[in-house]
Amino acid sequence: MNTKSVPLSLFFFLLITVQVLAQQPTYHAGQIKQAIKKLNTLGSVLYFAAHPDDENTRLIAWLAKEGRYRTGYLSLTRGDGGQNLIGTEQAEELGLIRTNELLAARRVDGGEQFFSRAIDFGFSKTWDETFRFWGREDILADAVWVIRKFRPDVIITRFPPDERAGHGHHQASALLAIEAFQAAADPQRFPEQLAEVAVWQAKRLLWNTSSFFQGSPASSNQFLMNIGDYNPFIGQSYGEIAAESRSNHKSQGFGAARQRGNSVERFEVLKGDAPQKTLFDGVETSWKRVGGGERIPQLIAAIEAGFDMEHPERSIDGLMELLDAVATVGDDYWKAQKTTEIKDLILACGGIWVESYAPAAKFAAGEQIPITTAFIVRRPGVEVAVGNTELTYNEQHEQSSVFTAAAITQPYWLGQPHSLGRFAVADREDVGQPGNVDAPKTSVLLRINGRELAYERPIMYKYTDPVRGEVYEPLAIAPRITASLGQKALVFNGDDPKTLEVVFTAHTQEKVSAIAALQLPSGWRAEPQELPLDFSAKAEETVARFTIYPGKQASLRDSLDVVLRYGDSTEAAKAIRSIAYEHIPQMTWFPPATARLSKVETGVSATRIGYLPGAGDLIPQALREIGLRVDVLSEQDVLSGDLAQYDAIVAGVRLYNVNDRMRYMQPRLLEYVKGGGTLLVQYNVSGRLATDEVGPFPLSLTRSRVTDETAPVTMIKPDSRVLNYPNKITAADFEGWIQERGLYFVGNADAQYERPLRMGDPGEAPDDGSLLVAPYGKGNFVYTSLAFFRQLPAGVPGAYRLFVNLLAKPN
User: Fold this and answer.
1) For residue range 561-575, what is the model confidence (pLDDT) as tens digits?
2) Dist CA 463 CA 35 (whole Å)
3) What SS3 string covers 548-583?
4) CA 330, 335, 340 angle in degrees (round to 5)?
């Protein structure tokens, strides 16, 4: 067996990508039968939208499993800018989670997954703002590239190209779909792509509309299609499959109920001609569309008619003959696609299992990794050989090889610094891919019933968890040494030094030495200046402590970087971060070993804080950065603990949405306020509130927000105590904010609430619902929709100063 994967020929280059699974998929007899029927369908459809969760999983499942079309979903972004309901990961790490949630969804509904370089930079109200961040031509080029490679006969958008789309990202996705539909067929558009792909004209572009967008029954100009079928080969309806697929979007809280029965989808034509009977009217989806495929339908019919569900291995010889016939057709795209399908069916019919795994989850770049590849054939009468070894029926055979770890397994879109709106991708062939095409894998050559067939398998690490059972993890290739910082931002309150902990970890099995140092802005210094590192074993760690002395001047863009010197070579160090949730494979990536440096000149309004965690944020750690004592509270602490010991209690983001027990804790919290405490509640959304009494007086929540992080802020109550004690808040305190000002502002509210701030996006009326303050009894109640959950972990000085003010008790 080769130690490296065999390069793909141009023949297979025309495929977009094989979506790598954690392990080899398994098929039961009904699924094999379904896959045989699919061999006769040569049609493809691309769903087109902006984010993870925008896709119609029921339609994708129906197209892939009932229509048996090659079905893909192009999500322009990876959902990096949203909120995380299952953890504290934000930005790039949230994008990693949602990428893998989409892949998990596609494994259920049968679709394939693609992405552009666009970043979900946060809520955008208009398409023109979206394009200013994304770069219209750049993301259009990505969409055209995916279309030219995937070659969809039909393109379907989730959103209309106007205000009905809801917000800027959605509307921009529809506008790009319309442009890409035309540009993909135009040799004058993006001609640099034509050295590798050909122009492609889809038959039609449709908007998958619904009453959600139109608020009305179907109109006569819409094409209607009932996709509520039940698939007996799978044992589920498409509503059931769709719910299972959509429920993988756990970071967004999108668990869905299984739907059964009729379900009508509505479509309107955006480009091309209108369908009359099916979405593929006028598209040849049989073997007639390719030259040389005349006898293939007969061969498939014979395989289908002769398929024995108790003895699927009897179909292998027919599939081998079909493989030879497909090799003679004149269309390389469908030749490659159907060859892959047939080869997978041969494994399924023979019960042939092949997997490659490493003895550990992580190795270092440059290492020679021992690999075990296991083989077993689980149907009698199937002749399988690996090299000169004939496999014995139902007995596992293992073969050893060595894999050279040439480079770290950094997600390709995170390999370079990126702008706010678009990832930087060095290799155009990566564009569109959900993951790394050069991920560690082996090439396996099997001789099945006398015929040699090549397969690729991802190299995994697997282990047995006492609760979850057998668990697979993708193999991670790390730098020789990583440097993981304890904080994303170091916040200095004055000129006192701070201690930074850095965990240096060796990932190579060989001895490795380096000199570590910190690069700091002018005027800042660190002790020690250099630190020698000597590791003699893999996974060995050392915890280093640097004392950082701040400079007299500080910029909003100041940062520190860890560098490593190996002999005469110096390189920027990388941290190592692992993200683990049970519904998706474990992810390991290597962000820069860097931290933002901030100087905050703030007074003290409170010293001991109680924090009730909400949907996941990093504010407790951020508050500790400025010397506050923060205790994370439980329900029992609230209901029976001594709350009077806290100067202030802070409710985490969306706490009243995600914790049903707040209906019982809220009266106790309001008693705490009445007795003299401060309760600071961060933003919630109006749906699914655990209690309508979020504050001591009535208030209502809206969907209003200010998405421009540079939007002017007016102090309309300049004498308000929250703008003056202990810090005087001015417009300068709103400089350097990231992603947005605030979200889900308060609308109507009782007159007893003071509203000291007003802000608005360009072209919109200013809104005063971002901050409400009211005395209640002897204490103070604060409700804020300002995005502190983004600002404080990023070390934004003005956000700290304002937040400290909000913790203060009333006069």
Assistant:
1) 999 999 999 999 999
2) 31
3) EECCCCCCCCCEEEEEEEECCEEEECECCEEEEECC
4) 170
**Number of Cβ atoms within 10 Å of the Cβ of 176:** 29
In this predicted structure, what is the pLDDT of residue 616?
78
3-state SS assignment for residue 240 = helix
Write the single-letter amino acid at 135: G
Name every residue whose Cβ is closer than 8 Å to that of residue 499 and which is 6 or more positions away in sequence: 545, 546, 547, 548
Secondary structure element (H or E) that encloses residue 713, with its range:
strand 713-715
Across 227-367, the runs of DSSP E, i.e. the strands, are: 230-231, 236-237, 264-272, 352-357, 362-364
**Does pTM surpass 0.85?**
yes
Beta bridge partners of 437: none
| Residue listed under structure tokens 């098929």 | 27
Residue 254 has pLDDT above 90, yes or no: no
Distance linking the first and last C-alpha atoms of the chain: 77
DSSP 171-227: HHHHHHHHHHHHHTT-TTSSGGGGGTS-----SEEEEEE-HHHH-SPPPTTSEEEE-
Kindly list the distances between the CA atom of residue 28 and the CA atoms of 24, 108, 348, 351, 561, in Å, as whole numbers in the listed order: 13, 15, 8, 10, 53
How many Cα neighbours within 13 Å face the side chain of 379? 22
Cβ atoms of 112 and 416 closer than 8 Å: no
How far apart CA 777 and CA 539 sit, in angstroms, is 56
d(CA 415, CA 410): 6
CA distances from 652 to 29, 663, 787 (A): 49, 15, 11
Cis bond leading into 726, ω under 30°? yes
Alpha-carbon distance of 281 to 266, in angstroms, equals 16
Cβ neighbours, 10 Å, residue 109: 26
pLDDT digits (tens, 9 = 90+) for 439-489: 999 999 999 999 999 999 999 999 999 999 999 999 999 999 999 998 888
User: How many angstroms from the chain centroid is the CA of residue 306?
Assistant: 43
Sign of the torsion formed by the C-alpha atoms of 668, 672, 673 and 677: negative
pLDDT in tens, 46-55: 999 999 989 9
Cα gap 189→25, rounded to integer Å: 39
Burial tier of 217 (Cβ tally within 10 Å: 0-12, 13-18, 19+): exposed
Contact 771, 734 (CB under 8 A): no
Q: What percent of the chain has pLDDT over 70?
A: 96
Select from 546, 781, 783 the least CA-distant residue to 675.
Answer: 781
The Cβ of residue 644 has, within 10 Å, a number of other Cβ atoms equal to: 10
And the tokens for 716?
């309309």
131: Cβ contacts below 8 Å, ≥ 6 apart: 172
